[in-house]
Design goal:
heterodimer, A: 306 residues, alpha/beta, Rossmann fold, Helicase, Ruva Protein, domain 3, 2 domains, five-stranded parallel beta sheet, two-stranded antiparallel ribbon, 13 helices, B: 652 residues, alpha+beta, six-stranded antiparallel beta sheet, 26 helices, 52% helix, 13% strand
């Protein structure tokens, strides 16, 4: 594998302890050019992961803490009238950064959420008829508390679709947690972390990810997954064509992180849960762990080779 | 517990269904224990109680052993072992903890299903057992379903499909699998509790039989069935008087010249007998020949079996309705059929002697007595008790009675009058079932009559009951009982009540016909029947050929399955890639096959290779690389044959 990619991964692993899989999924999401939604109870390292990604990748990043009274213009920026020049001047909001950390996105009211997600889709902000392009690369890493927590506005499915992946951080392992309790404070580690790659390198990697080979056998496998999800007893609603595309893109990024230039079925399976869990509507109303289990079940009975 | 709650509910339901057929038979305390264990487990499943300590399970096993030992007085009866199995089957719930326990209980259910047929082989029982087995399979499916969701009705659907798929195999095995007849003739402790005729006639015996609507036997005639008045089913000849009444005794052998001379009216029929209390099979008076398991003709003209019948058995018989037999009587016979104890029933003896005094012809004597019966006696099913010299009491005081009174007293008087006579026990009449075209004889059709010997004519059947209550003979018991409201009690009465409801009666006839068909075709399917069937396909087949034939069929089946498992999948429509993949997965040990679903790629299987057969992992790796190159990198330089070759190397 590319040495700089390796060093980026090592840098992230040093900060986020015992979460190799989550770290790789998050990085894969960014390499695939997709936005990331991290979902878990408070205190499990959602924000730390987002911050660490920004530091390690050497990207300019900003953080917005969402609350009920955050307005759309607080995110995108607003035009202010200048008396002296007798015109409106656009003051860009925090969204004009390479990594936007949108903390607790589901505490904001739907109007604000929409403004953010619209910008994510368009990669630009329109104000008074003028379109201001967002910097490149541009990632949104949003975090949200589990939906049944009080004071939340759940994101509608159509907007969840904008995120390439959803991650659950989960509790750290006992070993990792011990190091966390006794070692250097994580926040300090993040601040001390220097950039391990340049934005140009990152863009180069993104191009490499796009060039990862997807054989017809893999395309057919993804097709089988997508089509079977639509008729499966587990799901009320299956994957959309956009879901299939997302799965393909994410699989490429995962294969790239595995140091390969072609996708294998294992890559598809590795990213499937993260890519698809927020795109599927489940028939049962179990907790998240149960739903992930259903996804594993689903993967187990779709033919890898046919 | 790691098992889904609904799977546990399935398990409890199927277990109850498997235990239910034994419910009425098992000791009361055991039924209670099973119910308590079931209730506790249900409470556990619902989360109200915790798992009991393991000592509860251990203690319950020992207590169960002890109580059962006491109940049956040791381990020498089948019921002991059956109930022990059932008890442990229920008590296993006390240590229910994991999927494995549920599987074990459900596998045990298949053995429990077999025990059902030790006690009841009826169609109803079969339906109950089979539906229980479907539930058991559904439970197994529900338990092993990897989904975390509630399985809903899906397992029952799957189990039913599996059951239906297995049915053809069941039929084939049933028809062709060698019958292991001795295996099933285990004596049951309660086998003697069958209602039926006994080998003696005490006044009151038949009266208790008439209360019972238990089935005695069913008969299919090749031609139209004879009229009810001709249907005398002869079972036993009682030729001696003892203190208890008329008994079989040890009559002298009849003279060889007393062979039957058939005149006309020979009828063939097939009789399907229920278990009997005595080792005889009722036959139409008078039987000429019999075919069937261990059946033989007694010199006195009835059908004996080698031992008391424990199961439903079928006999082919031929009878002549108006045969003449016993034309000559030896001295010993004459003495035996005239013998009467000295001091009992003096009035009856005196009356008989007075009839003989006039040196009248036997015919005249018989007519005199019958005329007396016709004038002065009443046929009733509730004759009241008698004590002391019961025949004297009946003849000269009560004058109320039914067949047993008439037959016993008539024979007594005949002997006293110097006419050789004997009592015959059996059944009379029977109900014709038009749906199944057979005659059904139940215990309330039990009957007793007399046979007197007339010089120059031989043994003549005389049924005094026919003179007192002709409708009993003409129309059968059911018709005469309907006219005697309140005289009968118990289950037989319910049976007749039921008959008066039109559509219900029809339905009942249909059900009985079905049950009869079941008994004839399925329950009675023994070695001889099997041979008859198979020799239709394969003429000249002998009994000894069956075992090798079955073995050959078994090996053939085994071979087909083995080839199917070992051989590469020749399924049509599979792509080359899929065949490679399946070939590779099949190379893995059976142990790991469950872990490798269709959703596992070759790389995941490779991990299994490393853990199960590290020695061959390198060969497998070579295949996986070739496979990946061809399939996922679309490397044209890797030819299809080189992948096949790598797979072949792996297989060898």
């Amino acid at each position: 594998m590319n040495e700089s990619v390796q060093s980026v991964l090592e840098g992230l692993d040093a900060i986020i302890l015992g979460k190799q899989r989550e770290v790789r999924l998050a990085l894969a999401s960014l390499l695939a050019g997709g936005h990331l939604l991290i979902e878990d109870v408070p205190g499990t390292g959602k924000t730390t992961l987002a911050l660490a990604l920004g530091r390690v990748l050497g990207l300019q990043h900003r953080r917005v803490q969402f609350t009920v009274d955050v307005l759309p213009s607080d995110i995108t920026g607003s035009s202010i009238y200048r008396q002296s020049e007798q015109n409106f001047e656009f003051h860009p909001g925090p969204i004009f950064s390479q990594i936007l950390l949108a903390d607790e996105i589901n505490r904001a009211m739907p109007k604000t959420q929409s403004a953010l997600l619209e910008a994510m889709e368009e990669n630009a902000v329109s104000q008074d008829g003028i379109t201001y392009p967002l910097p490149s690369p541009f990632f949104v890493i949003a975090t949200q508390n589990p939906l049944h927590h009080s004071g939340t506005y759940p994101l509608p499915e159509s907007q969840l679709d904008r995120f390439l992946m959803t991650l659950q951080m989960g509790y750290p392992s006992a070993d990792a947690e011990l190091v966390l309790l006794t070692g250097e404070p994580t926040r300090q580690k993040v601040l001390d972390q220097s950039a391990l790659c340049t934005p140009e390198q990152l863009l180069g990697w993104q191009a490499e990810v796009r060039a990862v080979k997807v054989a017809s056998a893999i395309a057919n496998y993804v097709l089988r997954l997508v089509r079977q999800s639509r008729g499966d007893a587990l799901f009320e609603m299956g994957l959309s064509p956009r879901g299939g595309l997302a799965l393909m893109t994410a699989s490429r990024a995962w294969a790239f992180l595995q140091g390969r230039d072609f996708v294998t079925p294992e890559d598809v399976q590795a990213v499937f849960a993260a890519v698809c869990q927020h795109r599927l509507r489940f028939r049962s109303t179990e907790d998240r762990a149960g739903l992930l289990h259903s996804i594993t079940d689903f993967l187990n009975h779709v033919d890898v080779v046919a | 517990m790691t098992v889904h709650r609904s799977a546990l509910l399935w398990m409890l339901a199927s277990q109850s269904l498997m235990l239910a057929p034994h419910g009425s038979r098992m000791p009361l305390w055991m039924l209670f224990c099973c119910l308590v264990i079931g209730a506790v487990t249900l409470a556990r499943v619902q989360g109200y109680v915790k798992m009991p300590s393991k000592w509860v399970a251990v203690a319950s096993v020992f207590i169960g052993w002890g109580l059962l030992w006491r109940e049956y007085g040791g381990p020498m009866v089948v019921e002991f072992w059956v109930d022990l199995l059932l008890f442990l089957y229920a008590a296993k719930l006390l240590e229910l903890d994991s999927k494995r326990d549920v599987s074990q209980i459900m596998l045990l259910s298949f053995f429990v299903a077999m025990t059902h047929f030790l006690f009841d082989e009826s169609l109803l029982q079969t339906i109950v057992t089979f539906s229980g087995l479907v539930m058991v399979m559904a439970t197994l499916i529900a338990v092993h379903s990897s989904s975390t969701q509630a399985p809903g009705r899906q397992p029952v659907k799957l189990a039913s499909i599996a059951f239906l798929q297995a049915l053809p195999l069941l039929v084939i095995l049933f028809v062709f699998f060698p019958r292991l007849s001795p295996f099933w003739t285990i004596p049951l402790e309660k086998g003697t509790a069958v209602t039926g005729l006994s080998d003696r006639l005490m006044l009151g015996d038949i009266h208790s039989l008439v209360q019972s609507d238990a089935l005695a036997f069913r008969v299919n005639f090749t031609a139209a069935p004879p009229a009810s008045r001709d249907l005398y089913w002869r079972a036993l000849v009682l030729s001696e008087v003892s203190e208890d009444g008329w008994v079989v005794g040890s009559p002298p052998r009849p003279m060889p010249s007393t062979t039957v001379r058939t005149q006309s009216k020979v009828i063939d029929y097939e009789l399907l007998s229920q278990p009997m209390r005595v080792p005889v099979i009722p036959s139409l008076d008078r039987v000429l020949s019999v075919e069937g398991a261990s059946a033989s003709l007694d010199p006195l003209g009835f059908v004996r079996t080698a031992s008391v019948l424990q199961t439903v058995s079928q006999y082919q018989m031929r009878s002549s309705l108006n045969a003449v037999y016993g034309a000559e009587l030896s001295k010993a016979e004459r003495a035996a059929y005239l013998a009467l104890p000295q001091r009992t029933n003096p009035l009856a003896q005196a009356y008989g002697a007075s009839l003989a005094d006039g040196h009248r012809a036997p015919d005249a004597v018989i007519q005199t007595v019958l005329a007396w019966y016709f004038d002065d006696f009443t046929y009733t099913l509730s004759p009241g008790a008698s004590e002391g010299d019961s025949i004297d009491h009946f003849l000269f005081e009560a004058r109320r009675g039914f067949c047993e009174h008439f037959a016993a007293s008539f024979t007594w008087v005949m002997r006293a009058a110097g006419i050789p006579a004997r009592v015959v026990l059996g059944y009379q009449g029977g109900a014709y079932n038009p749906s199944g075209n057979y005659i059904e004889v139940r215990q309330f059709d039990a009957h007793a009559w007399s046979e007197v010997w007339v010089q120059g004519e031989g043994w003549r059947r005389v049924d005094p009951t026919a003179f007192v209550a002709p409708e009993r003979i003409e129309a059968g018991m059911s018709a005469s009982a309907a006219g005697m409201d309140g005289l009968m009690t118990g289950e037989a009465w319910d049976y007749f009540q039921m008959r008066s409801l039109g559509w219900l009666f029809d339905l009942q006839l249909q059900v009985q016909a079905l049950s009869h068909l079941w008994d004839r075709v399925v329950v009675n399917y023994d070695e001889a029947q099997q041979l008859r069937w198979l020799s239709m396909i394969w003429p000249g087949l002998e009994l000894e050929d069956l075992a090798p034939l079955a073995l050959a069929a078994f090996l053939l089946g085994l071979g087909v399955i083995t080839v199917g498992l070992v051989a590469p999948p020749f399924r049509r429509g599979l792509s080359q890639e899929a065949r490679w993949y399946r070939g590779y997965v099949n190379c893995l040990d059976g142990l790991t096959l469950d872990q490798v679903g269709p959703g596992a790629g070759v790389a995941q299987c490779q991990e299994a290779w490393h853990s199960v057969r590290p020695a061959e992992a390198a060969l497998a790796q070579a295949f996986v690389e070739k496979f990946g190159l061809r399939l996922y990198q679309e490397d044209q330089s890797v030819s299809s044959s080189s992948v096949s070759k790598a797979l072949l190397v792996l297989k060898v």
